[in-house]
Fold these 2 entries.
Entry 1:
Amino acid sequence: MTKSTERIEALRKLAVPLKEKAALDDLVKAASTARCVLLGEASHGTSEFYTLRAELTKRLITEHGCRIIAVEGDWPSCFSVNRYIKGLPGAAGSAAEALAAFDRWPEWMWANHEIGDLVEWLKAHNASLPPERQVGFYGLDVYSLWESMDEILQYLERTGSPNVEEARAAFECFEPFGGEGQSYGISASLFGEGCEDEVVALLAKLRTERTRSEDPQEEALDAEINALVAVDGERYYRAMITHDAESWNIRDRHMTEVLHRILNFHGPDAKAVVWEHNTHIGDARATDMFTDGMVNVGQLAREQLAPGEVYAIGFGTHRGKVMAGTSWGSPAQVMDVPQGISGSWEDLLHHAAGEDCVLELKDAPAVLRETIGHRAIGVVYRPAHERGNYVPSRLPDRYDAFVHVEVSQAVRPLAGEPVFA
């Protein structure tokens, strides 16, 4: 028996068809005791990844008391959704209006019909609950440097803070760069014209560590995380010009820190569901990222939380369609996803199951703990260069469980009709 045949047989024994009720039942049960359930995706543009994560999230909310959804999105945009589903001051009038806050490319990553359906469900779920039991929706990412600075100034002015002028002076340092992170990064990293000292000093003053009961409208939390984005966003844009691994690590350490602060804000019993790409939630130590000196949220969460408090679920597909762009900022298109390359995890699961299925990986045999290619598609995708889209991975060490979608469809953007490649 060849190694490939052994792997296929081992996967076949673990695979539970998704059409069987027990598949998701068992997955929810396995994840239910974790404080942080990390839900991945092999691309940012696959409909089934969104709908399946939504189904799991709803069950973790209704059956196991989860109150936090934290996603790979910008804090200000996600807080617009948070305001809407909780009916906080300044809330949008509809899910579509709340999701319109995602107005920077790739806006379709969150402003899509799949998320719109979840947002409306969250709004209805929260409607009959007291504030302390309502579910929140938060962004973990670091990109919104200028938007976060605007939010901080508005908060300080609204609350009559004595730090308004200090904040305005600190942010004036960024004005010459016109909201362009790359321009700022070049100036800061190559010419030493950075604004780090100013934003670090401001963050120290805005650090509140208030609880949910002390800050029921979440205004102080909003300001604190925006200030953290200003600090880490400055560091990220400065590092991205010259250090790929360093900028990646700044970003994932930031996302982990934001997650901790949200958990602390909601109290010791708070549980979170995290939606991010597989490359963020799957333990980096089980991939070649580790040898490149890179860390990620999945690794850091496992290191920083107690054993059993993190449960990571990866997602992948054998073939189908995906929403992506051919370059950063280019128009989004519905592209073909070719079948998984021979010998990849996607290919092996196709031969082992040939249908949508779930695998719990805790007791996976040694033959499945070897390093094999695992597809990763970003917001930029070039199917012609498919072989370069695979991350060498030990699947059972990277995730606690895995959801395989045999044939996938592209996510449906809220704005306009999808363009097909």
Note: The two ends are 41 Å apart (CA to CA).
Entry 2:
Amino acid sequence: MNNFLEGLMTSLEPMNIVWVVIGGFLGTIVGMLPGLGPATAVAVLIPITFGMEPISAIILMAAIYYGAMYGGSRSSILLNTPGDGSAIAATFDGYPMAQKGQAGEAMAISAVASFIGGIMAVIGFVFLAEPLASFALKFGPAEYFLLMLLTLSAIVSLSIGKMIKGFLAMSLGLLLSTVGIDTQTGVYRFTMGIPHFSEGIDFLIVIIGVYAIGEVLYNFLTIDHLKKEKKKVGKIWFSKEQWRRSKWPILRSGPLGFIIGVLPGAGGSIASMISYSTEKQMSKKSDEFGKGAVEGLAAPESANNAASVGAMIPLLTMGIPGSGTTAVMLGALIMLGIKPGPLLFENDPTTVWSLINSMFIGNIALVIINILLVGVLVKILDTPAKVLYPIIVLLAFIGTYTLSYSAIDFFLLLVFGLFGLMLKVLDFPIAPLVLALIVGADMEQNFRKAVLSSNGSMDIFFASPISITLIFLTILSISYPSIVKFFQIRKARKDININM
């Protein structure tokens, strides 16, 4: 309690509050820009932190991180273009809400869901950091492989009515994830002799291409229709009915996202997808998901923000990055003289508890900032299509170039933009492709490590209660659409018999 109070007083110092607000605001803005996710933002700002106090530096970087989680959904809702991988799920129902004239309501519920998820995660951080860090250590390569398999099965099962297309998109994403140097053997795979491909294809380029460029190209086909269409922003707050439908998904998804965030390498993308899939399967109105269901937006927003807080636990307690952004932060912390690990809570408790308390302040500041900015951001919808789309393309190219400062990425962006257009025209789900690309490399490496450690035996995937539970959930996820369809047919037959 003494450490907690000392950390609270440190986080309430005027300069630290200023850094929280600045970091949260910059994170929100950067999170909106396609490709410029939290990892890029933190990496760019690392040189600025060298002259700062270590506590202020870590507070600033953390604020940028979860601020970007707030901002990533803004472009998802307004433009159907995720600012980051964890904001993909926000496109499923957030963009349809905006098309219905509910952009203001969507952005307000997104901000509140992110706030509640973040606060729940910070409370969980205070009480559960040590036991959750210990649980994460029980995950070996086999468990991580099965967790990622569950994630992919969950996202494919969402493609009800076009599951075969979902499997094809997922398979293509897994194939793309194999491009580059094999980290275990050092062999170049599918690089076509181009040195730039040795590090693989950055999933952010694919996200920007298929979502941003693909969306622009598709909409240019109907730009005359769009010009005549009157877009409505709607009121800048949500209704009582929308809150009633959202509150329980938010409260369920916050702890789920937090726990997934604690698992090193899982991150907000997996948390948001699993929470979305879970809520769709639990909902009595699952047919509305993908068409503007408010709970389909609220749940992943709560989960991904909670996951960003959860990712800080393995970073601080074990020195293990829980996401790409915390991997960047790990290097920055070491350079600042902070050594994450089991002894950090004992040797430097002020830093840890100052960070935790700053997260309370940061989430309060961010929900205020994001709700106040709703009126400004939704005006993007009033921008004429012939002006808006070139701006989106320009931002997409700027975001792509900042990833590796290579002109080759421009050609990749155009290729995946055309590919995204083709997927949209043929009605293929895009999310399985992107998620498979994000987790594919780690999934492959964990599978190979598990098999090698068991001398080629597959029994290792059934060797622990965690593995068996994940396998059961995967089977349930894949079979869920068939089970639902079976009961729907059965119910329809009963109704016919009753009417007869």
Note: The first strand starts at residue 180 and ends at 181.
